[in-house]
């Protein structure tokens, strides 16, 4: 699945989680001063910004297949090398980077194994390859698990997102093992996001971002209203915060 939503729509839907997750992923990858890093599937640029803040913009590259996201990432991260393209065919020579990362991307690659192989190829020997995906399989990403729990009340046969690769514990680490990365480790990253109230939670789903937003747009207005009320019943009144867990894996090229 490729994202075609405007960057500000993605920001409203997932952006409130992205900044904290980007910092946690960079920590897990061991990103440090003096390195050169690549952000694969950069989206509007949350991880790119984190890497640029740590390393300097000239030492960071990024790539995404969505033109709107590429434009936003370039605007938000002047001086970085931001390109349009796919993970499965990275336009860099072998061994160019000390750290290659992808945040919430593996599940949306056309060929996740080839995508990670490319990440390994462009990473210098001894460098790190690191990826993370939301914990969809066991409901650790509360925003999405709440939405799909509400959908299931209306349509028990709804596809949800459970089949997306990398969204169950250990899947990313097993993928890294298959592409022969060394010293593979896995674990969990946890962040949280604040909402001013229910509308702040619900309205971004109506923007059509990601699998949840795309699914919602296939429903009639009546079914959308039913899902909305089912979500409301699962959430507290007033302002609230939601936790989100992502699984990550790190390996050495």
UniProtKB/TrEMBL annotation:
SUPFAM superfamilies registered for this protein in UniProt: S-adenosyl-L-methionine-dependent methyltransferases
Record keywords, A-Z: Methyltransferase, Transferase
Pfam families given in the database record: Methyltransf_11
Molecular-function GO term, any one: S-adenosylmethionine-dependent methyltransferase activity
Residue ranges annotated for the Methyltransferase type domain, each copy included: 38-129
UniProt family annotation: Belongs to the methyltransferase superfamily.
Annotated protein name in UniProt: Class I SAM-dependent methyltransferase
Species of the source: Solicola gregarius
């Amino acid at each position: 699945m490729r994202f075609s939503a405007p960057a500000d729509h993605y920001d409203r839907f997932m952006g409130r989680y992205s900044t904290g997750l980007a910092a946690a992923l960079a920590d897990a990858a061991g990103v440090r001063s003096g390195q050169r890093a690549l952000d694969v599937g950069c989206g509007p640029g949350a991880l790119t910004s984190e890497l640029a803040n740590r390393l300097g913009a000239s030492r960071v590259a990024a790539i995404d297949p969505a033109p709107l996201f590429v434009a936003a990432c370039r605007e938000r991260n002047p001086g970085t090398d931001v390109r349009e393209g796919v993970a499965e065919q990275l336009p860099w020579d072998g061994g160019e980077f000390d750290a290659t990362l992808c945040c919430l991307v593996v599940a949306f690659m056309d060929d996740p194994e080839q995508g990670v192989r490319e990440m390994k190829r462009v990473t210098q020997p001894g460098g790190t390859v690191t990826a993370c995906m939301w914990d969809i399989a066991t409901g650790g990403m509360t925003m999405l698990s709440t939405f799909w729990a509400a959908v299931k009340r209306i349509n028990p046969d709804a596809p949800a997102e459970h089949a997306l690769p990398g969204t169950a514990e250990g899947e990313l680490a097993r993928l890294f093992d298959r592409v022969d990365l060394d010293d593979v480790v896995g674990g969990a990253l946890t962040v949280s996001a604040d909402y001013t109230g229910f509308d702040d939670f619900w309205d971004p789903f109506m923007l059509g971002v990601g699998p949840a937003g795309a699914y919602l747009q296939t429903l009639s207005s009546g079914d959308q209203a039913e899902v909305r009320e089912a979500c409301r019943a699962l959430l507290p009144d007033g302002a609230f915060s939601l936790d989100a867990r992502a699984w990550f894996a790190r390996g050495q090229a």
